[in-house]
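User: Hello, can you help with two protein structures?

Assistant: Certainly.
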Amino acid sequence: MEMPSPPRKGRLQPMLVLATLSAAFGSAFQYGYNIAVVNTPHKVLKSFYNDTYFERHGTGMDERLLLLLWSCTVSMFPLGGLLGSLMVGVLVDKCGRKGTLLINNVFAIVPAVLMGVSKVAKAFELIIFSRVLLGVCAGISYSALPMYLGELAPKNLRGTLGTMTEVFVIVGVFLAQIFSLQGILGNPTGWPVLLALTGVPALLQLLSLPFFPESPRYTLIQKGDEVTARQALRTLRGWADVQDEIEEMRLEDQAERAEGRLSVLNLFTFRPLRWQLISIIVLMAGQQLSGVNAINYYADMIYVSAGVAADHSQYVTVGAGVVNIVMTVISAVTVEWLGRRLLLLVGYGICGSACLTLTLALLFQSTVPELSYLSVVCVFSYIAGHSIGPSPVPSVVRTEIFLQSSRPAAFVVDGAVHWLTNFIVGFVFPSVQAAIGAYSFIVFAGICLLTAVYIYVVIPETKGQTFVEINRIFAKRNGVEIPEKKEITDVEPHAPSPPAKETSF
């Protein structure tokens, strides 16, 4: 006999945990690792570029050419990310969420091999080309992974699993910082291994992820395979009666049939999703334009000005990485308790305050030398603030505020904004910093303030809500009716969930 049990809270079942680890370690880790892996050993890599050029031409490389090649090495990664983000919408629709992650491993394994043999082949071009492919890998995974994890998770764990994208990005950054220390692999003999290590997580994912289920939402709504979707839910939830979730997915399916599968162009002209679209653009642009990459760029200079020896600053950077990991994990375990909005607002508040204080400390540390230590505190405070809200939480929110039909197109826009603003900050900040110096951080403080105001005014708290319930909150913001909810109640009178959703708001 079927027992109409009250709504159950999902738990971290072994299958759900292992699927999350396989997907996140093989995908988000790649992004973080390849952001940081070329930073510490940059002198060693530049020396390889110069030596290779000398062997070919019998003369050393011009400084301008070396700078250009190194700029290409660094900037090809976000440009590849932009390309990958534009591909993700088609891939997740055609191949599924899990299928996309598996295919994406090609863009990690091939460049890992190319970079591993670049020294023997005496071809620095292989490194630059590989950075483009690694960017494509990161661009695809940064959008496909949160989609996969958000659709695997029960609603009470969606925030925690959603933040795993950023947790594993930060773990990748941290391990890259450790491995690239001069005493480990950041030296003339070890750097090919250092760069090739990015292929290991991809191989592990290729071996493990096929054993875990595809997104049940994708399986039911887009493939129409209810039997497989039920089996996946039973495995992920640890109980046999998954009818309530099946009904909720059917409700979502019916609610969005009227709008059909939205393309990116449709998304920009579709009024019922106007504020959702603006919100992901603000969240992703705010995440990058608030200065997180600029702080990382400026950090070594700040450490040196505080009296840290240049060859010791790499260890301070590792310390900052520890702060990053700890605060991101704290965010992951508290996001379902404190909610998305609070973590975002507190994070941006800390970042904005740190930027303002850092501006004052940098301006006056020449007259008050002790202020140089305050600058280091500001850098660590900024990293902590960004790690608790602006870095991890948008990955959760962007999955939650779109339904199945619009999610792939939304993630194309989301990814494009993320990578474009990432590239702009990296490309423009050195020039801005050279022009206005410490005052550049006031600009970042202003962006933190504006983003926080937008979040406070527009973005609702989404913890504990179904995708359909969240869609109804935004319907009021967009000034549209959702006639489907009454129609669905008429079409499926047996489903117990629609009336509960009607009374939620």
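That covers the first. Now for the second protein you mentioned:
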Amino acid sequence: MIIKEQLQESHGMCEYAVYVQALIFRLEGKIQESLELFQTCSILNPQSADNLKQVARSLFLLGKHKAAIEVYNEAAKLNEKDWEISHNLGVCYMYLKHFNKARDQLNKALQLNRHDLTYIMLGKIHLLEGETDKAIEVYKTAVEFSPENTELLTTLGLLYLQLGAYQKAFEHLGNALTYDPSNYKAILAAGSMMQTHGDFDVALTKYRVVACAVPESPPLWNNIGMCFFGKKKYVAAISCLKRANYLAPFDWKILYNLGLVHLTMQQYASAFHFLSAAINFQPKMGELYMLLAVALTNLEDTENAKRSYEQAVALDQCNPLINLNYAVLLYNQGDKKGALCQYQEMEKKVNVLKETSTLDFDPEMVDMAQKMGAALQVGESLVWAKPIKDSKAKQRAASGKPSSTQQPLGSNQALGQAMSSAAGYGKTIQLSSGVGISAPLAKPPSLPLEPEPGSETGPEETTEPQERRKEKCKSRLAAE
């Protein structure tokens, strides 16, 4: 009302009244109206760089990044030493995927004035380009400049977590929690680390704290579900994962875990449903096709199981378990030649893994491979460093010829490796960017920065499943 009276008295020529009215429109979500009023301010005072910055910000919020860049360049001519203009130009170029120009502008902004927000955006550009090491260097510099910024500490901790540097990750996440004990992103990440190392009860204690802050977080319920899975509380695991799926129906990691739990409970139709949905969102992941083939095998759809194995082998050139499972299926179908071919491919992959990493192979996988080698008459020593005996695996393993009691590599062998690698596949980190600005004296500033979704952690490592009574599980699930 005061603005309206002022504009009537000045016949619409009061620049500051128009400026504040435009800010009010923007806060109400009327971006187009605010743009028109800021343009009016620019006409009333064409030498004001701040008016041009507000015009550019409104264009940015409307998704017109190219137009925003043009206006920011005009503002830069009026004030060449404004770090905010360089920063915002970098953000606009980032959204246009002109990463080289974006980096140049953000580095220029840091030369003019160092700000946490500029470091965050520069690190995000490196992550978008897949340069995790460079992003870590940027965030380390930022932490040295601003050691109490919990967002920077959490982001750096998550990056170390993604690389498997758990000690450094724990250090930075711990520092973040020292400054802000209620930082739910850091708590969630710390709980994820504990869960990865099998401390399910401690992780659940952390997740209870997070649940108070963000009760509708899909990653939270995903991780809680996998904690229950590790504790062999399968019905509770399904309940939590279903809630996560309700909150994030397009997250393939949650669907992957649901398929995993249903396979463990020998509910193969449900497993097929969730794994098929996961494949629709993540069609290039070979392990999903392998688990789908396990479900199809138990549903007695051998032909489609073979097709799924073929797709898995074509997509994943590293995982020897895919070839071993495929070999067992072919052997059970009487195709010894095809089984031998897949077995030899598995041996090649194992040799490569032994040379390039210190990966410990699943004991049941080792035992099954030895039995399969004996059945195919290719020797019993094989490529394994030392034989590991497992009574359960011996009961299911091939003993020289296919028999009616022989079970293909189903839930136990397939899931043992799948669950141990789930954490590796699920560490897709999305870094968040906050909004933090310092206001000039006369007019509120403009920073076109939109917050990103919070960081997610993926499927967690779980323990090896055991045999259980199928009908009892079904009735409990129905009751749940």
